[in-house]
Every structure is written in structure tokens, then in C-alpha cells.
Design a protein that fits this description.
The chain has 2 domains: about 150 residues, 3-Layer(aba) Sandwich (Alpha/beta knot), CATH 3.40.1280; about 60 residues, Trp Operon Repressor, Chain A. Helix 3 packs across helix 5. The protein has 7 helices and 9 strands. A 5-stranded parallel beta sheet has the order 2-1-6-5-7, with helices on both faces. The protein has a two-stranded antiparallel sheet with strand order 3-4. The radius of gyration is 22 Å and the shape is elongated. It is α/β, with parallel strands linked by helices and about 230 residues long. Helix content is about 30%, strand content about 15%. The structure holds 6-chloroguanine. 6-chloroguanine (6GU) binds next to loops.
């Protein structure tokens, strides 16, 4: 799968994709990340990407023309498996099921909004969808894009090894958080690992984990239980 990022901060992404699972998947050729500098699609001496907002108000908006031209040149003859997503706090929320849907795409282009927003014609007539990663305001879509790529990349075939499989995890189990886990030592500063996990009764361990996952969900995320 190929991810594209459209941003005015191309250097921002050297860090997030150079470590761990995503870096390994890139090295193995299982995914590609192409970073596009939006200013390459400006035509003025100052490489202007923003302008004042009609109707007044503080702050600048991202102009439509460089964004339209960039997307049209990255995806000439765009197909339905080339998804274009506008990252904005006004979008519907990103969830694990969004990540599963994106993992089916051939190419995913994430437009990183900046300044006070993006001319609405990008959402209306260019992007397939808008997307927010949560109910808080970031200064730009770049961090959100890194999160979307990370969550999607680890669902691609062959990206996670068998021992790091995604199926047991929080949110993959419909409506439940992951169960709590412990490693050695069996006792640390007087706190012991639950007895049942130290034995080899796998049926009992499975039941214990299911109950522990439920208890954790009740305590931390009762909203998931509806
Ligand atoms: Cl995608 N962008 C910005 N600027 N803020 C956000 C967001 C995105 N998602 C949550 N907050």
C-alpha cells in the first residue's frame, strides 16, 4: 500500500516513519510513504498557500488551488481505490474500523490542514472524506496523519509478525479493551502477578482474561459497552 502526505511541513515526517513497525514495513517493501510539499503547487514568488477568510474573522485559510492541483497531479485519472482524506478537527472520528477500511485501499492521500482551516471546496469537491482523530484541536493535521498511517499500516498483510498479531487487541475485540498483562518478575515491590496467570491452565487463563478485560472496560471506558 502507498500512503501520500500533502503538507507544508515535509520534514515533520522524518521521525514518525523511521522507527518500529512502520520503518520495518517500509524496508520490507510492504508499504511506501510519499511526502509531497504543498508549496510545489504554488505559482507565486512567495509560494503562498494561505489567504484571508471571506466574511472576516481572525486567521488565514489554506487556498484551494494548490491543494486541487497537488491531488490531481499525485492521482492523475484517480480511481476509487485511491482515497483522498482531509484531516480536520471538523471531520468524523477516526476509529479502528476506519483503519480497517483504509487498509483495503491501494493508495491513501492524507491532506494535512494548517492555519485556521481549509477552503471548504476541498472537503466538498476534492476529498472523499474528512477525518478527525479526536475531540481536541491540534495546530495542524500532520500529527493526525502520522497516527492514521501508523494505525493503518499495522493492519496490512505481513506487517505484524505472528507474535504481535492485532486480533486480540483493544477495539479489535468489539467493544472491549485489551486485558491487562504482566511480565517477570512474578513479584515486584510486593505486587504479585495474578496467581492464575502463573499456572498453565489455559482455559482458566482465557476466562480470567475475558473477565479482566470487561472489568477494565467498565472502569476506563464504560462508553464502549453502550
Ligand atoms: Cl485531523 N487536525 C487538527 N488540526 N486538529 C485535530 C485533528 C485534525 N483531529 C483532532 N484534532
Amino acid at each position: 500500500m502507498r500512503f501520500h502526505l500533502l503538507t507544508i511541513f515535509p520534514d515533520f515526517f522524518t521521525g514518525p516513519f523511521s522507527h518500529g513497525v512502520v520503518a520495518r514495513a517500509r524496508d520490507a517493501g510492504k508499504l511506501e510513504v510519499s511526502i509531497h510539499d504543498l508549496r510545489n503547487w504554488t505559482h507565486d514568488r512567495h509560494r503562498t498557500v494561505d489567504d484571508r477568510c471571506f466574511g472576516g474573522g481572525a486567521g488565514m485559510l489554506m487556498k484551494p488551488a494548490p491543494i486541487f492541483e497537488a491531488v490531481e497531479s499525485i492521482f492523475p485519472g484517480r480511481t476509487p481505490r485511491q482515497r483522498v482524506v482531509l484531516l480536520t478537527p471538523q471531520g468524523p472520528l477516526f476509529t479502528q474500523s476506519t483503519a480497517r477500511r483504509y487498509a483495503e485501499a491501494e493508495e491513501l492521500l492524507l491532506i494535512c490542514g494548517r492555519y485556521e482551516g481549509v477552503d471548504e471546496r476541498v472537503a466538498e469537491h476534492l476529498a472523499d472524506e474528512e477525518l478527525s482523530i479526536g475531540d481536541y484541536v491540534l495546530s495542524g493535521g500532520e500529527l493526525a496523519a502520522a497516527i492514521v498511517i501508523d494505525a493503518t499500516a499495522r493492519l496490512l498483510p505481513g506487517v505484524l509478525g505472528n507474535d504481535e498479531s492485532a486480533v486480540d487487541e483493544s477495539f479489535e475485540q468489539a467493544g472491549l479493551l485489551d486485558y491487562p498483562q504482566w511480565t517477570r518478575p512474578a513479584e515486584f515491590r510486593g505486587w504479585a502477578v495474578p496467581e492464575v496467570l502463573q499456572g498453565g491452565n489455559h482455559a482458566e487463563i482465557r476466562r480470567w482474561r475475558a473477565e479482566a478485560a470487561r472489568a477494565k472496560t467498565v472502569r476506563n471506558r464504560p462508553d464502549l459497552l453502550k
